[in-house]
Write a structure and sequence with these properties.
The protein is an all-alpha fold. The chain is 55% helix and 0% strand. Helix 4 packs antiparallel against helix 5. 19% of the residues are buried.
């Protein structure tokens, strides 16, 4: 092997990669020049054609899913049907209760106007039109409020029966009371001071998956509803019995009691709508679609050329 620098042949016994005469590295090398970093030419962009739009078919395609609405599996059809019915009843009940609260407040205003007229009648004569307008307002508001109360009460009782059954099934227990006991406990005066609040507390207890062996501990919202419900029952019974009395002072006191009863009814209707919404959300939580959100914005780093 000859040295590429000095051209001298290497002796056969030479051991090494360097020339014995000049020290040149004997392995042949090839130097390749490359451009410095940052000066490379950018890659060529492939031009895309114009977007022609979605695919078009001359006839309906035979592939794909059938044109049917989305349905749940067959394993939970019964639970889904009962839960959807409960949610539908709550969607009807909440507007009814809010409308009842407005009508009860309007009836309270009419009764207050009547009481003001009673006070004025002691010293002056009242106009017939004013008295007739007051009587019409009180009569119309009272009757409409009564009818709406009966309708909302029927829907509320149906919702309670469904909520008791579904919450017990979700907690894998049996309801503490039968449907007949709940209905009579809701309607019979005296007993309905305790049964409705206990039933709603049991629904909340079961919906929150608490220990069935423990005593239900109602939340502040349920306790407030219980107090308003009991107050409405007590004041309603007193106002009904007060109608049996005669005399001008008894009628004036009856008007004041009706004002107080209407105000309590309006407050109870508002709180009842909150309770229905709260317990329905516990039993059948609304399905939320996760939407993307911006967590943070990272500034672009400067690149040196």
């Amino acid at each position: 092997m000859n040295c590429p620098r000095c051209g001298r042949a290497q002796p056969p016994d030479a051991d090494g990669a360097f020339c014995v005469e000049c020290g040149q590295f004997l392995v042949p090398m090839r130097w390749v020049a490359s451009p410095p970093p940052g000066t490379e030419s950018p890659p060529k962009r492939v031009s895309r054609g114009r977007y022609p739009g979605p695919p078009r078919y001359l006839s309906p395609p035979t592939w794909g899913f059938p044109a049917l609405p989305w349905r749940r599996g067959e394993s939970d059809d019964t639970e889904t049907t009962s839960t959807d019915r409960l949610v539908s009843q709550a969607g009807l009940l909440v507007p009814l209760l809010r409308g009842l609260a407005v009508l009860a407040a309007l009836s309270a205003c009419g009764e207050a106007w009547r009481y003001v007229l009673l006070l004025r009648s002691r010293n002056e004569a009242l106009g017939a039109a004013e008295v007739a307008a007051s009587d019409a307002l009180v009569g119309a508001a009272s009757w409409v409020t009564t009818v709406l109360t009966l309708g909302a009460g029927a829907v509320l009782l149906s919702w309670v029966l469904g909520a008791v059954q579904i919450s017990a099934e979700q907690n894998e227990v049996r309801p503490a009371r039968t449907s007949r006991v709940i209905v009579w406990g809701w309607l019979i005066p005296g007993i309905n001071l305790t049964i409705p609040g206990s039933v709603l507390s049991e629904i909340e207890h079961a919906a929150l998956r608490r220990d069935p062996a423990k005593r239900p501990d109602p939340s502040k919202l349920i306790t407030l509803w219980w107090a308003l419900w009991a107050s409405n029952v007590v004041v309603g019974i007193i106002a009904t019995l007060w109608l049996l009395r005669t005399g001008t002072q008894a009628r004036a006191d009856g008007v004041v009691q009706h004002v107080f009863l209407d105000v309590l009814a309006a407050a109870a209707a508002v709180v009842t709508s909150r309770v229905v919404t709260y317990l329905t959300a516990l039993i059948a939580p609304p399905r939320r679609i996760p939407l993307p959100r911006v967590v943070r914005v990272v500034p672009a780093q400067a690149t040196s050329v």
